[in-house]
């Protein structure tokens, strides 16, 4: 038998914790205790949110202001920690243990922008300079490369063009030098075909890029692929130039926090 406590949090998050009980009498006592602790728990949650908003240092020329993703992760962990501690307190458990468990539930997977990631970004910027490939850092600390259509694929085709092979070969060399990073390759299509054509085509394009990297002796599950069809255009599909921009491959490189 279990009793559940759900706590509405900020950022549209909701934390629910199931508490085991062993009898009807204990269930009633537990629920009564939880109700009595609700105001106290929510007050602590508000304090945690306030602290998480005030604890971030001001950005300096060598640091980056916290992004929405990093803020949400910190707030989620803070609220989760308070919720875990509160439930442990309400049910007679150890608050410290409950706080650690709650923080693990409330937090989300975070990516690390390390010196290694910055080094790889600079390497790839140099390797792709003047080719039309855009290299950037995303808000959630992933390295992003966008390979445009004029050097990757022709319309309705998943066959890599020669220049794309050259650039993917340089990318593969970078991956060999940075073996702790993981890769997501996302294929996109223009809207000149329906979803029954564009969805598998975009996946085939991502797989073509991955397979070429595999041929350069970079193997294993560290490289994943997705096909998103024409659902994420970056330009109008009403012109040939716009369709060419939408027909692209995006590569994300990330290093997970340990």
Automatic annotation (TrEMBL):
GO-annotated cellular components: cell outer membrane
Places the protein is found: Cell outer membrane
Pfam families: Gly-zipper_Omp, OmpA
Segments of this protein annotated with the region Disordered: 224-243
Keyword Membrane carried by entry: yes
OmpA-like domain mapped to chain residues: 140-257
Keyword set, alphabetical order: Cell outer membrane, Membrane
Full protein name: OmpA family protein
Primary location recorded for the protein, binned into one broad class: membrane
Organism of origin: Comamonas terrigena
Domain of life of the organism encoding this protein: Bacteria
